[in-house]
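Researcher: Predict the fold of GxxExxY protein.
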Amino acid sequence: MVRLGKLPDDVELVAKQVVQAAFNVHCELGPGLLESVYEKCMTIELTRMGLSLKRQLNLPIKFRGTTIDGGLRIDLLVSDCVIVELKSVDQLAPIHEAQLLTYLKLANVRLGFLINFNVSLIKDGIKRMIH
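Model: Structure tokens for GxxExxY protein follow.
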């Protein structure tokens, strides 16, 4: 039985690999590039680690029995259990956190990472969020 708030070990393992991939990409490239570059590099790194992933995954919205294409796209869905939203901005804003929480809810996924690569130290750009 899973305790409320505790994630399964396999999800935690994927989470550690996502963080490691972000460290690896940031260590090699540093800040200042476009989000799309970091997304492609994270894809390469996570695939190299043996993880499955989906990129720019369409996220439909279900409202009162109707499915709506709202144009929402998840940057990365890793191993069908972790959403990764990538940014390359001066500073994360509350709207970025709200976006990730909404994606977690709509996709029925519990764990997500908001990663801003436009920082000197990547540890300052990683925010783990649980729905």
